[in-house]
Specification:
The protein contains 13 helices and nine strands. It is of the alpha/beta class. It has two domains: 208 residues, Spore Coat Polysaccharide Biosynthesis Protein SpsA, Chain A (Alpha-Beta Complex); 122 residues. Strands 1, 2, 3, 4, 5, 6, 7, 8 and 9 form a nine-stranded mixed sheet that branches. InterPro entries: Glyco_trans_2-like (IPR001173), Nucleotide-diphossugar_trans (IPR029044). Keywords: Transferase. It comes from Chryseobacterium defluvii.
Length: 346
């Protein structure tokens, strides 16, 4: 299939990115695939980000500036302005290898809703790859009729970031997919919603994104009540918008338990939440209490594990801390294995 005629809209939200943004935009400008438009949104920066952005005269670059609205609203603005056949998100502190867009577009056969490249974690100051975000080892195509991508994520792990995924624009607009405004961890919800709706997804083995891990200003690297409340908003939204409306989709209950595990894990390692935030966690966990069906392509041991996770989440925060955060039994999965072992050896 000749894919050279497709226009790719690259959306770059920028907030106080003066240390990074020149190199980021140069990496976009130098793409071997030339049929791009780069939508750059200055989200109320207080440094000289806008001055740097305005120094680029590439006619493919479209620059907008707004008062500070946050990442979700800024990406949504970019989605509104995009005119391309495909959408691609790039953060203002990450870099694209020169072949990135060409590699992703060339994988399109006419049926894929989402094409995903491999993401390298990147030390900006040293300019070197550190490791890689979770990704299939080889090229893998999912018809996704039975939520295969979401199942793979809860059992084997995938990167939930919105970046480094080529989304077919028609797919996003047909399903009215947008980022939830005003929360942290919006990518977790975006990942679920896009993979819940996608009919065909392909994972490519090529590295097509360098994800900066030494930016101390990154919001998601800090832990606070807002991080916890962001995750709680994600599971409430999935529960109300998908679990209750699509009861035949068994994956949603298991996915909610998977997200609860992430929240409890963050609680264990960053237990500096306020009493009010923990009360909200307890309340949300009780409200988001799904029923689990067996008609899902999971091993019985995994089905039982996710039910176990949900049962743990229904306990109060103090009990969770006392019962599950003690060494040497320092993970929920180890606790689960002990429970199973004791049942089989009574």
């Amino acid at each position: 299939m000749n894919t050279s005629h497709f226009l790719v809209s690259i959306i770059v939200p920028c907030y106080n990115a003066s240390h990074y943004v020149k190199e980021v935009l140069e990496s976009i400008q130098n793409q071997t695939y030339s049929s791009i438009e780069c939508i750059i949104i200055n989200d109320g920066s207080t440094d000289n980000t806008l001055e740097i952005v305005n120094s680029f005269t590439d006619p493919r670059f479209h620059i907008y500036s707004q008062e500070n609205k946050g990442l979700s609203d800024t990406r949504n603005f970019g989605l509104e302005k995009a005119t391309g056949d495909f959408i691609y998100f790039c953060d203002s502190d990450d870099l694209l290898p020169s072949h990135a867009i060409e590699s992703l577009v060339s994988a399109y056969t006419g049926k894929e809703d989402i094409i995903i490249g491999k993401t390298a974690t990147f030390a900006w100051e040293e300019k070197k790859i550190v490791s890689f975000l979770p990704h299939p080892k080889e090229q893998q195509q999912f018809e996704n009729a039975h939520s295969e991508v979401l199942l793979k994520n809860i059992t084997e792990g995938l990167s939930p970031i919105a970046q480094n995924k080529l989304y077919r624009t028609e797919f996003l607009r047909k399903n009215n997919l947008k980022f939830l405004s005003g929360i942290y961890h919006e990518d977790e919800l975006w990942f679920f919603e896009t993979m819940f709706n996608a009919k065909n997804v392909i994972f490519m083995p090529e590295v097509t994104y360098h994800y900066t891990v030494d930016n101390a200003q990154s919001i998601t690297k800090k832990n606070s009540d807002k991080n916890l409340l962001g995750y709680l908003s994600v599971i409430k939204t999935i529960y109300e918008k998908y679990y209750l409306k699509y009861p035949e989709r068994s994956i949603t209950a298991y996915y909610l338990a998977y997200l609860k595990k992430i929240i409890i894990g963050n609680f264990k390692h960053h237990g500096n939440y306020s009493p009010e935030a923990l009360q909200q966690m307890e309340k949300t966990f009780r409200e988001v209490n799904p029923e689990f069906k067996d008609n899902i392509d999971l091993k019985n041991i995994e089905k039982k594990y996710f039910r176990f996770l949900n049962n743990v989440s229904l306990k109060d925060a103090d009990t969770i801390r006392k019962e599950y955060f003690n060494n040497p039994v320092n993970s929920l999965r180890k606790h689960y294995k002990i429970v199973i072992f004791s049942l089989f050896n009574k």
